[in-house]
Structure formats: C-alpha cells, structure tokens
Amino acid sequence: MKILLCTDGSSHTVRGLNLGTRVARTAASSVDILAVVQRDQEKEIRQLAEEVAADLEEAGIPVTIHWRTGRIAEELVRQAQTTPYDLLIMGSRGRRGLVRLLLGSVALQVTGHAPAPVLVIKGRVRDLKRFLVCSSAGPVSEHTIRFAGRLARALEASVTLLHVMSQLPLVEDAVLDDLEASAEELIRRGSREGVHLGQMLDLLVAEGVVTRAVIRHGLVLDEIVAEAQEGQYDLLVTGAHITPGLNARLVDDLSADILLAANRPVLIVRQEQ
Amino acid sequence: MGSQQGRRLKWKKPVLASSGFVLFVLALGLMKEGAGGLAPLLRGRLEITNAADSMGFGWLMAYLVLSGSPVAAAAVALLSADALSPLQAFTMVAGSRLGASLIVLLIGFIYALRGHNHWTALTTGVLSLLLCSSVQLVALPAGLLILSRGWLDNLAIPALEGLAAGINLGLEPLIGPLAAILPDWVLFVAGVGLVTLSFRLFDHALPQMRLERTDLSQVPRLVYRPWVMFLMGLAITLLTMSVSISVGILVPLSTRGYMRRENIIPYILGANISTLADTLIAAALLGDPRAVTVVVTHMVCAAIVSLPVILLAYRSYERAISGALAWITHRRRNFALFLGVILVIPVLLILL
Questions:
Q1: What distance in Å separates residue A89's CA from the closest CA in chain B?
Q2: Residue A103's pLDDT band (boundaries 50, 70, 90)?
Q3: Quick check: A169 and B257 CB within 8 A?
Q4: Which residues contact B84 (CB under 8 A, 6 or more apart)?
Q5: Which residues of A touch B326 (CB under 8 A)?
Q6: Which value, to the nearest 10 degrees, does the dihedral of the CA atoms of residues A205, A209, A212, A213 take?
Q7: How far apart, in Å, do the first and last CA atoms of chain A sit?
Q8: Rounded CA gap, A189 and A169, in Å?
Q9: Number of CB pairs, chain A paired with chain B, less than 8 A apart
C-alpha cells in the first residue's frame, strides 16, 4: 500500500502525522511525506519530516519527502493527482460553527477532490483497532468494504458493519418487517439489506477480518455518530459517491456530514459512479 | 378494441376534471348560500365566537370528514357569508390542516390493531401531524398578526373574480329555488359533501406522474438535500392539490412502499404550503378578497416558518421531529397519550 502522509507543522497535522506513521509502519509498502513549509516554521517542519522518514526507513519502508510551500489542502490534492496513492493520511483541526463557515474545512477540500481514499485523523484516538464501516446497501459499499477489509487486515483491526434503516412506510402494505428487523433477522430473511450485509460480511471474512453486522433505526447521520460513540470505535469508514450530472447537486454528501460530525478518525473511500 | 379503450381513457380524465370543477363551483355556491344562515347556529348553539373556537371547530370537522380541504373551503365560504371573521376563518383553516392528518394515522392504527403489532405503520401519520403542528405553532401567531395589521389586505385574483361573477350568475337559477325550499344548514352540508366529492374526482382526473425514470428514482435509497425534497413537495402538491396524493406519487419509486425520513420530512414541509392551492381557488371563486387574503396569509406564514428551517436549521429540526416521533411510537402508553392530546386539544379550544 503506497501511503501519502502530510504536515504543515500545525499541531493537528503533527497529530495526524504521528498516528499516520503508526498506520504506515504496519500497512505501507512505501511512503511519501508531503511537508508544506511555512515561512516561520521552516526549521521545525524539516526536522519533523526527517524524523518521521528516519523512523519509517528504520522499519524497512522506503520514504520520499516532497517539500512544498503554500496551502496544505491544495498541495495535498495536487500531489495526489500527480502520483497514484492507495491512501492519504492527514490531521484535521475539527473547526466548528461560525469559524468553519467562514474559513471552511481543509479536510473537506481534500476529501472532495483527492482521487484516493483519505484517512482524516481527528480526536484523541491512539490506535486503529476497531473499525465501524457504514454501509449504504448500494454499489458504493462494496468498494469501501474491500478497502476497509484490506486496511483492517494490515492493522489487525476488527470491523463492524453498520447499516441505518431510516425509512418510513408510505402505505399500509409496506414491508414493515424489514423496517423493524435486526441485522441477523434481515440476513436470515434474505431482504435486500440482508442480502447486501451478508455479501459484505463474506467479503470481510475472506480478507481474514473479524467482523459482525449491526442495524440501527433513525436518522442516518445521527445513528452513525451515536454508534461510533457508544461502541467506542477507533475509526469510522464511509464510502462516497463521485456522482456526475444533476444528481451531484441534488444528493446530500453524507460522507462530508460524517466527517464534520464525528469526533474520531474518519476514512472516506471515494468511487466514481 | 385496444384503441377504443385508449380513446375512452383519453376522454375519461378531462370529463372527470370538468365534472369535478362543476361540482366544486356548485358546492361553493351552496356553501356560501347556506353559510349565511349558519351564523346564529355557529355563534349561538355551537358558541363559535372567537379564533380559538373556530380553530377547534375546523380541526374537529376535518376529523369528521377525514380530510382538510373541504373544511378549508367551508371556512372561506363561511367568511364570505360573514358567518366568520377573517381571523376565525384563518384559524379554522389552520385547524383543518391539523385535523387532516387523522386519516393517515387512522389507516396506520387499524393496521397496527389488525394483529401485525407494527407500530411502524403509524409513523407517517404521526410524522405528518408533528410537521404540520410544528409549523402551525409559529405560523398561527404570525398569521394573526399579519391579518390584524392588514398587511396583506385586499388581495384579489381579477381573472378568477370575473369568472366567479359569471358563475354565480349562472348558478342563481339552480341555487335560488333550492335555497327557497331547503334549510340553510342542509345547503351547507350538501356543499361540504359535494366539495369532498369534487376533490375525489380531481384526484382521479390527475395524470399518472412517473418519477421512476427521473434522476429522483433513487429517493428511497439516497439522502437528498433538504431543499430539493422541499421544492419537490411544494411543486408536486401544487399540481395535485393534495398532500396524500402528492406523497402517494412517491410510492411507485419504492418497491417496498417506504422512503427515507430524511427525504420525506422536507417533502411534507413543502407540500404543507401548496396544499392550500385548492382553498385559494375556492376563495377566488367566491369573489371575496378577504377570503383570498386569509388563504394567502396562511401560505405565506407556512413559507415564512418552513424556509428558514430548511435553509438554516434543518438538521436540528429534523432531529427534534425524529426524536418526538421515536418517543410517540416507542410505547403504547406514549401513543395513547399523543392520541389523547390530539383529540382533547380541539375540544378544549372550543370549550375554553
């Protein structure tokens, strides 16, 4: 797995670099470090990047450092567009409210434009051993699950597959059983979600990952965040559509909402539709 | 044979629509004629003397006829005949909207009682009542303020007013003799009955809308942006003039008959604004600018409340509504309490 780590010397990118280095140590076959040098911190950033590179090289992983100036989001996307990576890892400040409204989210700029999966490090998680993978029961999920499975196997992490049923019946003869069922019941019954969950579990088992499925009922975003908190997961994994045409303007970007709402690392796996 | 059937279908919808319109106009005429004599009954025996009374009255009437639109049309007819004040007509229309959700709730309740033990069947009915009441809670005082200050007074739709004058002249030979032999309340009740029937005819006359071939065919699976579903609810209900028909149009999109709540909440919010389009036409056909003002005020207030919610605070609103929905359908006791509240409030509004 070819991984791109990055830092501009700010505390959150350093935190991202630290956890990213631990991930890269077990999961990477080669690593690039993107060091975006700020005028007043040039010396510190150089020292930090070289220390990380030395650490990884000691573990037998080849490292290349790319020196840049400018804004970290733009440089990161540019680097990812010129070199194919399997995974980008970055720290996030986690701006909220008015500040985010005014300044925007660097993580969103990267996840919205980068051509590879992006692992955004947030919160105080020290290790990635428990993954919560969100399944939309659609075609995007399969790509996401395969990637999450590969990463989980490399990091020896367990995976919980989450599907949220937020549907409400519009007619009296709607299939109500499916709206109230647990994951096991859906799989046993062979409903659309059950079949999908079963297939995804099989994919993860084939990757050699310890796994289970969970169903929650309610609003999609709220239930994902609640499950992540209640289950104390280390990483939230979600797929994202790159939808062409009219649908891109009409459909809500749930991966962006999850990234902004979660208080722990989030891995966003994008796929062309 | 096939072409004969096709020709019959081709004619069926325009005939239904024309019959519906004729009935609608006749019903309005009967209601207006009958409403004039109902003032003593409303103010005397029923004691509908203030805005709260008329709200409770509209609410209970909608329960009785299992629909909001005929009651809203009755409210503007009563205003037009001076049996109600503009403020009272406004609150009666509001009451009719709140009472309109009972039919969805009732269907779900019967299904739940049939032994399926699926309280999920009730959720759409409860949701539509929660959405309507959350909007009315703010729209009601805003509307009363607008009406009492006269900010939207003297609105009129000249084209329909001209048509109204012509229609009233044309109906005179039919309604005049009926009014001479029948008591006012019979005319009024017949009008309410006919207006309900005319809405049924309109429903059958509507062309089948096929959304499954559009980009929105993934509504059951994907979460659409709130403003998209809001505009869709607004536009489709404007065409169908009924929330239940408008929601029903979404059903073919889902083979299993259900929809994400993230999509249905803004859809119903939009639909709640344009569902009064039929009442607006009724008000204009009655030729009374006060009735037009009352209905427009209602639509404006619903928009004033819904738009900031959709654009600025949608997530919090959606969370609050979803939380209330979960609480109500969590236990039988909670649902019984909710049912008690929605049955008692309109009665209390009249009694207090």
A1: 27
A2: low
A3: yes
A4: B42, B48, B54, B75, B78, B92
A5: 218
A6: -80
A7: 24
A8: 19
A9: 101
Pairing of strands A211-217, A158-165: parallel
Chain B CA closest to residue A191: B256
The tokens for B85 are 């004040």
Interface contact flag, A250 B224, Cβ < 8 Å? yes
B224, B247, B326 ranked by CB distance to A251: nearest: B224
pLDDT in tens, B117-151: 566 777 888 998 999 999 999 999 999 999 999 88
Q: Which residues in chain A have their CB less than 8 angstroms from residue B218's CB? A: 247, 251
Q: Which residues of chain B have a pLDDT value below 70? A: 1-10, 111-119, 207-218, 252-255
Retrieve residue B137's tokens. 């809670």
A168: distance to nearest CA of chain B, Å? 5
For B268, which DSSP code?
H
Token pair of A92 as six digits: 């996030």
**Nearest C-alpha of chain A: how many angstroms from B146?**
33
B228-241 per-residue burial string, b: 16 or more CB within 10 A, e: under 16: bbbebbbebbbebb
- Please tell me the distance in Å from B219's CA to the nearest CA on chain A: 9
Q: What is the mean pLDDT of residues A148-171?
A: 92
Class of residue B186 by CB neighbours under 10 A (exposed 0-12, middle 13-18, buried 19+): middle
Preferred mutation among B106, B129, B223, B318 to probe A, highest tally of A CBs within 10 A: B223
| pTM of the shown model | 0.88
Token representation of residue A149: 């499975």
Q: What is the DSSP track for B281-299? A: HHHHHTT-HHHHHHHHHHH
Taking residues A107-134, report their average pLDDT: 90
pLDDT at position B223:
84
Two tokens at B218?
Answer: 């993934």
Prediction ipTM score: 0.87
CB atoms within 10 A of CB B8: 10
Q: Can you read off the two tokens belonging to residue B349?
A: 């509004």
What pLDDT shows up at residue B240? 81
Strand-pairing partners, residue A213, are A161
Task: Enter the tokens of residue B231.
Answer: 């505009």
- The partner residue sitting opposite B256, judged by closest CB among A137, A175, A246, is A175
Q: Which of A166, A169, A247 sits opposite B262 (nearest CB)?
A: A166
pLDDT of residue B210: 58
Option in B226, B258, B315 nearest A167 (CB)? B258
B170 contacts: CB under 8 Å, gap ≥ 6 = none
Which pLDDT score is estimated for A139?
63
A254 contacts in chain B (CB < 8 Å) = 223
User: Which positions in chain A touch B124 (Cβ < 8 Å)?
Assistant: 168-170
DSSP B158-185: HHHHHHHHHHHHHHHHHHHHHHHHS-HH
What is the total residue count of chain A?
273
Which value, to the nearest 10 degrees, does the dihedral of the CA atoms of residues B335, B341, B344, B345 take? Answer: -150
The span from the CA of B10 to the CA of B121, in Å, is 36
In this complex, is the C-beta atom of B324 within 8 Å of any C-beta atom belonging to chain A?
no
Say if CB A256 and CB A112 are below 8 A apart: yes
